[in-house]
Design a protein that fits this description.
about 30% helix, Alpha-Beta Plaits, four-stranded antiparallel beta sheet
Length: about 100
């Protein structure tokens, strides 16, 4: 197994291309996107009842080193401050096959 940092980002679908561009810029090894997610936060429940344009997407990826993680967090934070969203970083182990 390899120690990695799991990065989870929840963002409005309108901005998903900006986040994916950031992931490509910092050269993450891959990512998973789940569209049309619902959430509940301090402003109540949010879902896609206004159509998919206003729904949220969940993006999961891993960073294999601290430099890559720092670059990702530093680059995505201004976007999240501007438009909202969330970024979580946790310790994980990558099972190598």
């Amino acid at each position: 197994m390899q120690a990695v940092k799991k990065v989870e980002i929840i963002i409005v679908d309108l901005e998903i291309d900006a986040v994916l561009d950031i992931l490509n810029q910092v050269k993450v090894s891959g990512y998973t996107v789940i569209k049309n997610t619902s959430r509940k936060g301090d402003r109540g429940v949010a879902n896609d009842d206004l159509g998919t344009v206003f729904s949220n997407s969940y993006i999961m990826t891993v960073c294999t080193n601290e430099k890559q993680l720092e670059q990702l967090v530093d680059t995505v934070t201004p976007l999240l401050r501007k438009i909202g969203g969330i970024c979580l970083v946790t310790e994980a182990s990558w099972v190598l096959l």
